[in-house]
Design brief:
Shape: globular
CATH architecture of the largest domain: 3-Layer(aba) Sandwich
CATH class of the largest domain: Alpha Beta
CATH superfamily of the largest domain: NAD(P)-binding Rossmann-like Domain
CATH topology of the largest domain: Rossmann fold
Strand content: 15-25%
Structural class: alpha/beta
Number of helices: 11
Order of helices and strands: EHEEEEHHEHEHEHEHEHEHHEHE
Radius of gyration: 19 Å
Helix content: 25-40%
Number of strands: 13
Length: 309
Amino acid sequence: MQLVELPTPEPGPGQIRVRVEAAGVNFIDIYLRSGQYKAPLPIPLGLEGAGVVDAVGPDVEGVKPGDRVAWADAPGSYATHVVVPAARAVPVPEAVSFVAAAAAMLQGMTAHYLAHSVYPLKAGDACLVHAAAGGVGLILSQMARRVGARVIGTVSTEEKAELARAAGASDVILYTKTDFLAEVQRLTDGKGVSVVYDSVGKDTFDKSLSCLRPRGMLVLFGQSSGAVPPFDAQLLSQRGSLFLTRPTLGHYTASRAELLSRTADIFQWIKSGDLTLSIGATFPLSQAAEAHAKLAGRETHGKVILLPG
């Protein structure tokens, strides 16, 4: 990846142009760049960010130049300026910084729909969160703790274990030293957990299924270790009438009302101190390739941010 000069885009009907103050780096960007997710070339990298509206296209209402906004699905957000559909931009309160807003969009809304919609956690539930010190993992753990659920997290290092505990994990498993399936069974007295939130994929899938209690749910929402190979659906029956889902954020923010509801919760929790965002690293826009390398190599924790300014 190289930083190049391109013409500043102009917003069309229903669009706004935003001066980007912070852009989020996510595994989906790596999947698109590497070809793991198929997309036509050239690929406009970066989907989320936050900044200031500096131009408004025709047929746009309720947004004006100078407004603070954030977004989660505007391709080409690795830039100084990006065109965003007005219907997908959300207002950012003054009390929330642009870095926090960018960090909260994809990962914050993902954690929100996982914990509140896909498998709505409640007090007394036990959940297993893989990559508990990652961007989604740290937010998801806080949301789970907020409703009174028990969080068991997996991490790779002692440093990340401390981060996971601070975010709400009551038990943390170093998967580099301990078999996480055996430890989950020990921690739950052999009962298993109600739900596994798995963003790792291939390396954890089979054991994640075995961590579930009867009629538990495996929520596969990423594949940082690679895609899960085909498997026999009879396994779900044999291991306790299990549920498996592969959700995506777009289907859980399909309407503007749902989008605004999720971001309103997240921004309110940030303002009140109920949600703390961990910014693991920031890079200038020119170092986007290094940001990808650090994230892919699991050398970061929390959120990775690009700063175009």
